[in-house]
Amino acid sequence: MAIILLKNMTKKVNIIEQQQHVLKYAATHGIPIHSTEIETSDASLVLEDRKEFKGFLRSLNNNETLLVYDVWALSTHVDELAKVFECLLKRDITLHVCHTEEIVSSSLSALNALSVLVRIREEGIHPKEQASQGRPKGRMSQSKFDTYRAKVIEYLEEGISVSEIAKLLHVSRSSLKDYINSRGLKELAKTKKKLLYATPTKQPTKEKKPEKECELIAQPPLGGNA
């Protein structure tokens, strides 16, 4: 079952254009639509302050398909998007980002989810974050270290220090450190590990203990608030 989530109260793309694009994407890819939801909370807020959106996430069933025009329909914070992706992966919910034709799914590599987060960070979807780092709005300029990006993230995942990575790559430590900080690669490496952990893995010979339910969508206690 596929659900469309449209984002109201946004200056990016009006809701009619979002709907038209998503429906065209669904038709092109043969995805039958079951329902359409409209989300009106402020996507710039942290998830804990978006009760409506959290309620929507709780309403999703395992193995469903969610279609959005772009990921800013979910959140405009990279770290909050990582939380949403983690929850979707844990519940085998497939996310289609129709505008960019990106898919986040437990059946695909968690690197797909990471690549979406990298794109969002570099396109400056969170202006406050850019301002604090002294970068202008828009896409980051290219760097000679871009060719090492995947390897650097892999090394950071393994807990290798920046000094050791610089030696392995035969590059300047200070320049590499600036690159890692400007691109937020340490945070991306942590997110990648988290998403890989969230992706269900099959273990036919040994029963796997059920993972802890994602805190973002966990049901509140009786009589409590969402």
UniProtKB/TrEMBL annotation:
InterPro entries: Resolv_N, Resolvase-like_N_sf, RNA_pol_sigma_r3/r4-like. Residues 204-215 have a biased composition (Basic and acidic residues). Residues 199-226 are annotated as: Disordered. SMART domains: Resolvase. It holds the Pfam family HTH_23. Residues 2-126 form the Resolvase/invertase-type recombinase catalytic domain. This is Recombinase family protein. It comes from Sulfurospirillum tamanense.
